[in-house]
Design a protein that fits this description.
Largest interface: A-B, 17 and 23 residues
Number of helices of chain A: 12
Shape of chain A: globular
Largest sheet of chain B: none
Number of domains of chain B: 1
CATH class of the largest domain in chain A: Alpha Beta
Largest sheet of chain A: 8 strands, mixed
Radius of gyration of chain A: 21 Å
Shape of chain B: elongated
Structural class of chain A: alpha+beta
Structural class of chain B: mainly alpha
Oligomer: heterodimer
Number of domains of chain A: 2
Chain lengths: ~350, ~170
């Protein structure tokens, strides 16, 4: 584990290079019990089985998977297990609890409050958000209408993903992504492969900006969040389920390109944050916003400069020098490992 | 003297029984009407507000009165309780629980049960169709109930007293 103190003015800022969960458990702050929050949405018989999970297993729980006529599975710290009817881990199929179609049906009933009509859009998109910010992924039979996905029927698989905000995840980034003279964040692109914590990082960055950062004498800013995948704020009934601070406006489930322009006009944000850009429309919207005085924070799936530039629309943004900071993440030492930060001229501001 | 009191008691009790029978005819008509009104509200909640069932049913239960309102709020509570019972089960339980209080008959029960089977399980348009169809059935029942009411209400209202009087005359 390798840490050092970075001098910034009179402030000493603690930099932790390792991931949030890797390296001696230095970062992860698990305040809420996610399992307890998803409990009421599981079929009663599944609840009984999961009741057997205790202690660290509850803290580390990442996913609960229900598949019709297949074993009940959970994922803890990147490892998959099946559960037997007593709630004990097993690696073998025999003895595992097989999820019945009725259990799936009851669970669907519970997550939708028995009101499929109220969650049409959620079913079309294949996931819904529960209070607490936890997400349920759905798979089943697609119903098409004129070639477009109309809804899902006969749900066969459910994946409960326990949400965990890591408060303070973006702290090490602050000295590099804030323009302390202009008192604005730089246009920042967070680049990471899947599951390396880009959304967690973005969420915490939004939170810090919206609260303000007194130790850096950085004022609080109004932040607009376009949350197309409901991952940043995880709104449920219009209320962000993650703490994003007092100055955040969220456009939930709104396509990014439309949403960014809309927020810019309607809410006058000083910062706009959005997740997983990459389509032509997103890039057009970003071009439109770069010179309006609003700072852009965005994330993208890639693991190297090469991969980033291989994507046609993103390559255009990189070449145009739109982003002033590029933050590369990996999961080398656990999710959230910062690999390096580059500036608009592709010079390293921080590298390992 | 006691004869007179006895005679009056016989006439009054049979007369009251007749009036109660008569009022059950008019109560059924009123209940069928208010069920249709409640369904109309549910339609609005589903079609325009997409309110989930527990909230929508409870809201209707609060605004309405009588047995209809009770059925809706009981069903709303059962679905919202999160005990994993399906909407159809919850709806049927709510019907069975409140049935003794109502003047509705077997035909009405069947219509309402089949409404419950489809409740919540599809998109807005399908829900709308289900509600409209159920309302039409209930309207037909209401018409029938009204005809029965016209035919039978008078009969029971006066019949009770007349029967009482004739018994008294026979006994005197």
């Amino acid at each position: 584990m390798f840490n050092f103190f970075h001098n910034h003015g009179n402030q000493e800022i603690y930099i932790n290079y390792t991931g949030w969960t890797g390296g001696g458990g230095s970062g992860s702050l698990l305040a809420v019990n996610g399992l307890a929050e998803v409990f009421p949405y599981l079929a009663p018989s599944i609840r009984e089985i999961l009741q057997g999970l205790t202690g660290p297993a509850v803290d580390e729980l990442e996913e609960i998977r229900l598949r019709s006529n297949r074993p009940l599975a959970v994922r803890l710290s990147q490892k998959d297990y099946f559960l037997n009817p007593r709630g004990e881990f097993t690696k073998v199929l025999t003895g595992a609890h097989y999820v019945s179609p009725e259990e799936i049906q009851k669970t669907v009933q519970l997550i939708s409050q028995g009101s499929l009509y109220a969650f049409e859009e959620e079913f079309r998109q294949g996931f819904l958000t529960l209070p607490g910010g936890h997400r349920v992924g759905l798979a089943g039979k697609a119903v098409l209408d004129g070639g477009y996905l109309k809804t899902l029927r006969d749900i066969g698989s459910l994946n409960f993903r326990i949400a965990r905000a890591v408060l303070g995840a973006a702290h090490p980034l602050l000295p590099f992504v804030l323009d302390l003279r202009g008192l604005r964040p730089f246009h920042t692109l967070i680049i990471s492969p899947p599951c390396a914590g880009k959304t967690t990082l973005l969420r915490d960055l939004v939170r810090l900006l919206s609260y303000g950062i007194p130790e850096l004498h950085f004022p609080a800013l109004n932040v607009g969040v376009v949350d197309e995948r409901c991952e940043i704020a995880a709104c449920c009934g219009g209320v962000p389920q993650h703490d994003l601070g007092p100055r955040v406006d969220v456009l939930d489930r709104c396509p990014k390109a439309v949403g960014m322009i809309m927020l810019l006009r309607s809410m006058a944000p000083q910062v706009i944050a959005t997740d997983e850009i990459g389509r032509a429309a997103d890039v057009d919207a970003i071009w439109e916003m770069v010179y309006t005085g609003v700072s852009i924070l965005a994330t993208v799936h890639a693991s190297s400069w090469g991969e980033l530039e291989a994507r046609p629309y993103l390559q255009e943004l990189v070449a145009g020098g739109v982003f002033e900071r590029y933050v590369f993440l990996s999961r080398r030492e656990g999710p959230g490992t910062i690999e390096g930060i580059w500036n608009e001229l592709r010079q390293p501001v921080l590298s390992r | 003297m006691w004869k007179m009191v006895g005679a009056l008691l016989v006439i009054a009790s049979l007369g009251m029984a007749g009036i109660k029978m008569a009022s059950s005819y008019s109560r059924r008509t009123t209940e069928l009407r208010s069920l249709q009104d409640a369904l109309q509200m549910l339609d609005t909640e589903i079609l325009y507000a997409a309110t989930p069932l527990p909230a929508a049913l409870k809201k209707i239960g609060q605004t309405g009165v009588g047995v209809t309102a009770r059925i809706f709020s009981t069903a709303g509570d059962l679905i919202g309780a999160g005990q994993g019972c399906t909407v159809a089960e919850a709806w049927e339980k709510a019907l069975v629980k409140n049935w003794p209080l109502s003047a509705l008959n077997q035909d009405d029960f069947i219509i309402l049960c089949s409404f419950g089977e489809l409740l919540g399980g599809s998109d807005c348009q399908e829900q709308h169709k289900n509600i409209v169809l159920t309302s039409q059935h209930l309207e037909k029942e209401e018409e029938k109930a009204r005809r029965d009411q016209e035919k039978n209400m008078r009969l029971w209202q006066y019949g009770g007293f007349l029967l009482g009087i004739s018994i008294v005359l026979l006994l005197l």
